[in-house]
Amino acid sequence: MTVQRVSPLEADQLMRNDGYVYLDVRSIPEFEAGHPAGAYNVPIMHKTAAGMQPNADFMRVVSSVFPKDTKMVLGCRSGNRSLAAARALVQAGFELVVDQRAGLAGARDAFGQLQEEGWEAAGLEMSSEAHPERGYEALLGQAGA
Asked: One of 14, 23, 76, 97 is an active-site residue; which one?
């Protein structure tokens, strides 16, 4: 299954014009430090003292909160976690999932050179305040956890 990947500007247009929601799959602290305005947060990985660990509740929370036909743009810091999350959601039957390449911080090559600007560098709308019903704790509660 191939996941469609779009630029930050294309992702913004999908949200503005086509009713897509932004699902930020970064950790809670990353999300709280700043995210695309209006984004939902369901981390695919949690930041722990032992490093990044998989979120065992990721699929259950997303499946409980969003119908399978929800139009979703997935994003993260650089595009790696969101691509993995998008592939998992498509495999689980979500029909309208796209991955936003380059994440918030931009995509870099193996030498650390910027390959594509991310959401923030593209000057797209950011927020440091989560909508009360779109933060992970609220979504986890909606999923009955």
From this structure: 76
pTM, two decimal places: 0.94
φ/ψ bin of 34: left (φ > 0), alpha (ψ from -120 to 50), beta (otherwise): left
Check if 18 is active-site: no
Q: What is the pLDDT of residues 52-110, one digit of tens each?
A: 999 999 999 999 999 999 999 999 999 899 999 999 999 999 999 999 999 999 988 89
* Paired tokens of 5: 């990947």
Question: What is d(CA 9, CA 124) in angstroms, rounded to the nearest whole number?
Answer: 8
How far is CA 101 from each of CA 7, 63, 73, rounded to the nearest angstrom? 5, 23, 10
